[in-house]
Structures are given as structure tokens and as C-alpha cells.
Description:
about 10% strand, about 70% helix, mainly alpha, three-stranded antiparallel beta sheet, globular
Amino acid sequence: MTTFAVSKNDVSLVKGLKNTLFIGFLVAFTLVFSGLNKALAIDVTTAAAVQTTAVVAAEEATHEASHDATANAAEEKHGEAAHEGAAHEKFNPSEVIKHHVKDAYSWDFFEMDGKAVGFDLPCLVYSPKLGLNCFSYAKIKEHGTEFEGYSIDHLTHKITREDGEKFYDISITKNVVSLLISAFLLLFIFIGVARKYAKNPNSAPSGFQSAIEPLILMIQEDVAKPMLGKKYLKFLPYLLTLFFFIWINNLLGLIPGGANLTGNTSVTAVLAGVTFFCIMAFSNKHYWGHIFAMPGVPKFVLIILTPVEILGIFIKPFALLIRLFANILAGHMIILTVVGLIFITAEMSHGLGWGTAVFSMVFGVFMFSIELLVAFVQAYIFTTLSALFISEAVAEHHHEEAHH
């Protein structure tokens, strides 16, 4: 990498961030505006349903004059069913939020005429007795609730078997597809950038290379070198992969209809687990010496301090897991909740829906802009803390020499 091109890269980076922010405003505006349109449509649908219920009620009143008590009871049940049908059309914000943040066997982008627009994903299940079974998630939907003994649990939204037969679910879900997309983007970006460096090693970066180089230098100069010292080159590839993987998936999750990959504990647990593996694999004797017998500490204090230090070995990766998961999930839920206010208030009043839409639009754009920053900050924090924890395990300590 060449250092003389950093100033030009900074200008390119600023322009790129401005373009990203502008795109974020457009996406947020589109999301909120589409929510407004759907809310007004729900308002009209609800009004029509109420009007239909009123007509049915009037017909029941006329019918009651010429029928006996048994007929009256039947008509009242019919009226209750019509009312329940109208209430069923109401917007359920909890289900919408859960549908967005949870993993699924299909990737739905939006709804049209009450039907989800997207595509179903392949379900792969292996049973020791039945063997490997592969089928589309559409098969379960076509057959109602069950297909070849497999069905979807309505509470966990996971594949289950009615007969209780043990099986392993290795299906390609929405999060898996998003993971593959981000991996392809990483390979596409960095293989292209590496080829440019190999082809023109002494020339200033150009194109997309000029936007990537400041970020690479940032992780190298501000994270890897200060914390890992002379050993930074050994861990720099992992730190760069960690940063760009988390950042790209954070951004993909902000796209309407995108997957909430980094807001999933399974993904963040694996990322934290890799950092934990690096700590265990590359730790030296000084690290374990400070864990079990910290120099300069009285022996009776070690009885309390040593268990705390051992517990800290596992708390550090757990903190990485929770920090990334909680921050990304909270951002998604706040944006969805703000947009959901349009739907909720539009069902109460047409005018109130318009008033709430203005507030939701302004606050939604603001939160979306904040989330663009959070996507970068969380990737940087996760990478920095990983470098810090690894440095504690691989650094050479000199407490004993200083003591003497």
C-alpha cells in the first residue's frame, strides 16, 4: 500500500460517505412513504369492512322481526363472525417486527393483494432412520401444515415432526442466503482490489480501490499496530475480514426486505467464538500466569481473584456476542416501530394517520441515518475489542522483570 495517496483517498471516502448517506435518506423516505400508502389503504379497507358490518347488522335487525329466537341466535353469530373478519384485517406490529428480525425458510420482500412477494428456499433435513430429505418450503405451504411428516411449529417457526422422530435441520434459510451474498461481495471486492495492487504496485489507487484503502489503513494503523505491536501482521488478515464482514452485513440488513444477519445470536456467537479460539490458540505462558497467579498479588487475594480471571476468559467473547447482537437488533426494531405507528394510527383516524406519517417520516430518516453510522461503528468496535483481547493473550509481559 502506498501512503502518498492517502489524502486523495480521504476525499474519495468523504464523497463516498456523502453518497451513502444520500442513498440512505432515499431508502428511508421510500420505506416510510410506502408505509403511509399501505396505512391509508388499510384505513380504507377497515372503513369498508365496518360499513359492511353495519349493513349486515341492519339486515339482521330486519330479519329478527320475522324469525324466531333460534334464527336470532344464528344471525348474531353471523354478525360476530363478520366483526371478527373485519378485526382480522387490523395491522399487527408485533408480527411484522418478528417477521423481519427472525430467520425464515422463505425470503419475502413485500406483500401484494395479501400475498407475500418473494421466493421459497430449499429445506434440507436429515434423519438417522429416514435419511436426507430435500424439498422446497413451498411444499409445506401447498400441503397446508405438513409434508412427508414435516411441518412448521407455529411458536418457534422451525421445522418439526409430528411423530417426534429425531432429525437434523440443515436448511438454507434467509440468513444463510444473506451470508452467502456477503461472502460473495467480500470475495468480489477484495480479489479485484488485490489484483489492482499486484498489477500496479507503485501507482496511486483508483476507482473502488481508492475507497477501500483508507479503511484498510485505518484498521492497520489505528487498531492492529497499536494493540498487537510487532505481531500485527499475523492477525491483520483476520481483523480486516472481521471488520468488512460485519460492516457489509450491517449495511445489507438496512435494505428494506434484507436479512437481519448480524442481529442474530447464532452469527454473532460464531464471530465471538473465532476470536475466543484465537485467544486460546495463540496465548502464551505469561497470559496464563496472570490468570492463575498474578504477580505482586498476595496469595490469599488470589483465592478470590483467580476465579474472577477465569470467568473473565469467557465473559469477553460473550460481551462481543451481546454487544453486536443487541445494537443491531435494537436499531431494526426502532425503525420498524416508528414506521408501524403509521399503520396503527391510520386505523384510528385518517387525519391522525397523516399527522403521524409526517413525524414517522422525519424520525425514520433520522434513525436510518444513525443506523448507517451504527453499522460502521459496531464493526469497528467488534474488531477493536477482538484485537485488544488477542493482544492480552499474545503480548510479552515484563511485570516480573520490573519487580526485580
